[in-house]
Design goal:
Blueprint lengths: L4 E7 L3 E2 L9 H16 L8 E5 L11 H8 L8 E4 L5 H14 L5 E9 L7 H8 L8 H7 L6 H12 L3 H20 L25 H5 L19 E10 L1 H6 L6 E10 L9 H12 L8 E4 L5 H10 L12 H4 L6 H16 L3 E8 L3 E9 L1
Parallel strand pairs: 3-4, 3-5, 8-9
Antiparallel strand pairs: 1-6, 1-7, 2-6, 5-6, 7-10, 9-10
Family: Belongs to the thiolase-like superfamily. Thiolase family.
GO molecular function, one term: acetyl-CoA C-acetyltransferase activity
InterPro entries: Thiolase, Thiolase-like, Thiolase_C, Thiolase_CS, Thiolase_N
């Protein structure tokens, strides 16, 4: 099977809800990293075979195939097609998988994998709300209800179920969240993200980290659910952001004089309990490591999306993973989680951190709606 290489990775800053990126149209927001990716790699944009973009709320300003619209808004060739995909929070990690698979199959040579979400402009749940307002049923049919019953299916409940199952107290999760902010604040202050970010609307750095937060402040927050353990402090932030990755074949590397920065080692995907919803990174990681012939100890940097604190905490416990290698520069609790944009953003962070530290193997994973998870393992070159 042909190899697939990452030759470019760039992202926008991640903006807070109603922050510096909140007035940027999502099509334009996605256009920034696309244009920057082409400029940085120096590739002929007309040679790109496809643009695959993840976006969760494909509604209103994010509808009508935002991948195609963003590419054109970036001033790039009309001859290049684009497609928008939805695997919930893993949408743009899945776009990386599809791009790599196109290259590995030998049917494509240059593919852009990207993602975007403006949660300020298109709020989470917009597409569901619109359907409900028109009297359409919630997106679980009768057969689904026969299998799982009439019960709440939500990420918030899933997070609480995980905290209970793995025995994480509110205090445990507050400590994890505090460390996420401290790591992210240090990374921003030291400029670790500077090379991977293209400024947008005057915003040059991620807006989410709160270096002045304290455990006392976190302890004062209200619970999201009565009798629960999760608060806003131990949840990912609502955010705006986009990212783009260029995946190339060996032939494209030669033809366009590109520099491979990482080799995609393996791709894995699995499903788990849709009620718990957030647990699938655990079996998916085990599957990916086995396929790659690696152990968790071989992995130098992990980016696991901090949808809620119990997700990475349970993952580390089950995999016996090193906390120092896991989200070393903070995660979505501090840096934000712009849904469909997060997968591409995490890959940009993962690649740059491997390059900064000289690590060899990196692993990216994230929980997704429906109880799913993607895992991508890369090798820095």
């Amino acid at each position: 099977m042909a190899e697939a290489y990452i030759v470019g990775a760039v992202r926008t800053p991640v903006g807070r809800k109603k922050g510096g990126l909140s007035a940027v149209h999502p099509v334009d927001l996605a256009a920034y990293p696309l244009k920057e990716l082409i400029d940085r790699t120096g590739v002929d944009p007309s040679a790109v075979d496809d643009v695959i973009m993840g976006c969760v709320m494909q509604f209103g300003p994010q509808s009508m195939d935002i991948a195609r619209n963003a590419w054109l808004s970036a001033g790039l060739p009309e001859t290049v097609a684009g497609v928008t995909i939805d695997r919930q929070c893993g949408s743009s990690q899945q776009s990386i998988h599809f791009a790599a698979q196109g290259v590995m199959s030998g049917t494509q040579d240059l593919v852009v994998a990207a993602g975007v979400e403006s949660m300020s402009i298109v709020p989470m749940g917009s597409s569901i709300t619109a359907a409900l307002e028109k009297g359409m049923p919630f997106p679980f049919g009768e057969k689904w209800v026969e299998r799982y019953g009439m019960q709440e299916i939500s990420q918030f409940r899933g997070a609480e179920l995980m905290a209970e199952k793995w025995g994480f107290s509110r205090e445990d999760m507050d400590c994890y969240a505090y460390e996420s902010h401290q790591r992210a604040a240090k990374a921003v202050a030291n400029g670790y993200f500077r090379d991977q970010i293209v400024p947008v609307a005057g915003v040059e750095d991620d807006e989410g980290p709160r270096p002045d937060t304290t455990l006392e402040k976190m302890a004062s927050l209200k619970l999201l659910r009565e009798g629960g353990r999760i608060t806003a402090a131990t949840s990912s932030q609502i955010s705006d952001g986009a990212g783009a990755i260029l995946v190339a074949s060996e032939q494209a590397v030669r033809d366009h004089n590109l520099t491979p920065r990482a080799r995609i080692v393996t791709l894995a995907l699995t499903g788990d309990d849709p009620v718990y919803m957030l647990t699938a990174p655990i079996p998916a990681t085990k599957k990916a490591l086995k396929r790659a012939g690696l152990s968790i100890g071989d992995i130098d940097v992990v980016e696991i999306n901090e949808a809620f604190a119990p997700v990475p905490m349970a993952w580390m416990k089950e995999l016996d993973a090193d906390p120092d290698k896991t989200n070393p520069n903070g995660g979505a609790i501090a840096l934000g989680h712009p849904l469909g944009g997060t997968g591409a953003i995490l890959m940009a962070k993962l690649l740059h951190e491997l390059e900064r530290t000289g690590g060899r193997y990196g692993l990216q994973t994230m929980c997704e709606g429906g109880g799913q998870a993607n895992v991508t393992i890369i090798e820095r070159l």
